[in-house]
Amino acid sequence: MKTKLKISIDNLYTVFKKYCVDSTKLRASSCPCCVTDEEIKEIVGKPLERLSEEELGHFSRSAISTFGTIEDYKHFLPRILECMQYPNTDLLFDFTCFEKLNYAEWETWPFEEQKAIESYFETLWCTVINDENTTGDQVEGVMSIILKYGYLDRALLEWSKSNTSKSTFCIIEGILNGFNFEVNDNDYDIMFKWLTSHTIKSKIEDMYFKTNDKELANKIAIVYTILENKWEVTFY
Fold first, then answer.
1. Residue 117: CB partners within 8 Å, gap ≥ 6?
2. Residues 15-37: pLDDT tens digits?
3. Which domain of life is it from (predicted)?
């Protein structure tokens, strides 16, 4: 049975399959100083779904500005997004750093393309936040994407519903050490209200009573005090 994440990835390939790439045109629309013929041959010469993160790295960072057109970017986008699900991927952080979706004004794209992207991001978030083996970096990386291209309220609702200890631990570590994603004033207010809600304090309290780790229990007690007193929380 296919997972929801796999279904959303398949949908990306279906929606964007009409965009084809041609090596000659890609060469003509790419900077001759920044992009080599070998790089073009490498990404055009393989089936899209077999391209690696490393092979797509330069294109994903330089697309549209110095490497191809918006149509070329749309061709490779399903595979770029698919690669973001893998552990320890740099694409997860490059994606928000280089902002190619906003650069390409993706919110003006056809409706089905926008919905396919939004659906993937939401499904990726749900997968990450409900996986006991997820890492704090993955949670913060996908949250950065949600803040730029998704819906924060939906993401926080899913986080509230998650029953994994890792999802709660990420909250504890974020409050103690700062969350590694940026928020604007409005998002800060939403996040702070959510963090200090009864739901989140109850999740943290529940972990406190279940743990036998004295060091963790001490951290949780500090975090609970911060939330109970509504002290400031840091985002980087």
1. 12, 77, 81, 101, 106, 149
2. 999 999 999 999 999 999 999 99
3. Bacteria
21 domain-assigned: no
Quick: pLDDT tens for 38-63.
Answer: 999 999 999 999 999 999 999 999 99
Report which DSSP code applies to 130: T
Query: Is residue 33 included in any domain, yes or no?
Result: no
Which helix (DSSP H) or strand (DSSP E) does residue 62 occupy? helix 53-62
Distances (CA, A) of 106 to 25, 103, 216: 22, 8, 43
Residue 168 resides in a domain: yes
CB 217 within 8 A of CB 208: yes
pTM of the predicted model as reported, rounded to 2 decimal places? 0.94
Domain of 228 in residue numbering reads as 163-236
